[in-house]
């Protein structure tokens, strides 16, 4: 959804979508590369106006923050090694050690699976590396993130695969402080509709996530 490329530029689905929305609505946007474990504290402290970083909209988060309209559906999916035939989805994770990024909905989903042992990581690439090295049995992560590692990563392509279907129904949204003091969500929501109506959204989705957006 967002990453730093070889030219040290922040790129990805979130970046292209926000840039398209900014262009449609006539505002300028600046992106800041921020570690996940401090991203919400930074918002609360006024370091930036909003978070657009694959943040799942949850009831718990909505108690503290406001969200834009959902901009992509990103349910959790299971990733295993390419030669694994035992794990076919979440129902076969009992007795397995399963990795996820700390504090994410993937970690929360694993905790609800009977018999599964959660192992948390500071970043999802560390979980994928442990999986490839046979230190854990599976990883649970948002579908778009899984697709990027499985289909596009030079390190993991051909070594890992997604199994089953997304087993949660989750949506990403832009996060702002309660009360939306900068009025960003109204601009974003109007721009999101315009970008979808123009077909630009589908082009961005296909470029970064593959397939169709619906």
Given the helix and strand composition, which structural class is it? alpha+beta
Q: Can you list the strand order of the major beta sheet?
A: 7-6-8-5-9
Report the β-strand fraction as a percent range. Answer: 15-25%
At CATH's second level, what is the architecture of the largest domain?
3-Layer(aba) Sandwich
Radius of gyration of CA atoms, rounded to a whole number: 17 Å
Q: Could you state the CATH homologous superfamily of the largest domain? A: Periplasmic binding protein-like II
Report the CATH C-level class of the largest domain: Alpha Beta
Strand tally is 11
List its traits.
about 210 residues; D-Maltodextrin-Binding Protein, domain 2; five-stranded mixed beta sheet; 8 helices; globular
Give a verbal description of the structure.
The protein is of the alpha+beta class. The protein has 2 domains: 3-72 and 171-209, 3-Layer(aba) Sandwich (D-Maltodextrin-Binding Protein, domain 2); 75-163, Periplasmic binding protein-like II (D-Maltodextrin-Binding Protein, domain 2), CATH 3.40.190. It has helices at residues 13-25, 39-44, 59-62, 105-111, 124-132, 143-152, 184-198, 200-209, and strands spanning 3-4, 10-11, 65-67, 72-73, 76-81, 97-101, 117-121, 138-142, 160-163, 171-172, 175-177. The strands form 4 sheets. A 5-stranded mixed sheet has the order 7-6-8-5-9. β6 (97-101), α4 (105-111) and β7 (117-121) form a beta-alpha-beta unit.
């Amino acid at each position: 959804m967002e990453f730093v490329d070889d030219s040290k530029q922040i790129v990805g689905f979130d970046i292209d979508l926000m840039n398209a929305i900014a262009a449609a609505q006539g505002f300028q946007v600046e992106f800041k590369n921020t570690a996940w474990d401090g991203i919400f504290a930074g918002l609360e402290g006024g370091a930036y106006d909003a978070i657009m970083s694959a943040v799942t909209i949850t009831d718990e988060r909505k108690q503290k923050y406001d969200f834009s309209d959902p901009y992509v559906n990103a349910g959790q999916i299971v990733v295993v090694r390419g030669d694994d035939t035992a794990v076919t989805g979440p129902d076969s994770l009992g007795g397995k050690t399963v990795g996820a990024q700390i504090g994410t909905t993937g970690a929360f989903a694993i905790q609800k699976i009977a018999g599964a042992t959660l192992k948390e990581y500071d970043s999802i690439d560390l979980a994928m590396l442990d999986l490839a090295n046979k230190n854990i049995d599976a990883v649970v992560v948002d579908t778009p993130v899984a697709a990027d590692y499985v289909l596009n990563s030079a390190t993991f392509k051909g070594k890992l695969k997604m199994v089953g279907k997304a087993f949660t129904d989750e949506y990403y949204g832009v996060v702002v402080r309660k009360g939306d003091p900068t009025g960003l969500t109204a601009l974003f929501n109007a721009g999101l509709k315009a970008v979808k109506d123009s077909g630009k959204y589908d082009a961005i989705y296909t470029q970064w996530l593959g397939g169709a957006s619906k």
